[in-house]
Design goal:
This protein is mainly α. It has one domain (7-81). It contains 3 helices and no strands. The longest helix has 38 residues, at 28-65. The chain starts with 6 loop residues before the first helix and ends with a helix.
Length: 82
């Protein structure tokens, strides 16, 4: 979805099929909110997908840049040999 598209734009597109929303059995307000829900869910899902991808990259970078603590390895080996 392009960022420059607005809810009003999608609302106008969804209402092109008939001359009035009442012809389809819906009033204008319910048509608007149904369109708003659809568009906002699409936007939210895209936003969360991008945010999750970005967070994965950040966490991978952070954990790959932290050197392992040699003391931890030594402690594990001592506990295993006991």
């Amino acid at each position: 979805m392009k960022r420059n598209r607005t809810i009003v734009h999608y609302y106008m597109i969804s209402d092109r099929g008939s001359t009035t929303a009442e012809e389809r059995g819906k009033d204008i307000e319910s048509t608007f909110w149904a369109t708003y829900k659809k568009v906002s869910e699409e936007y939210d899902n895209n936003f969360l997908e991008r945010a999750n991808d970005d967070m994965s990259i950040i966490l991978t970078y952070l954990f790959s840049s932290i050197p392992p603590n040699p003391g931890d390895t030594t402690n594990v080996l001592i506990l295993q040999s006991a």
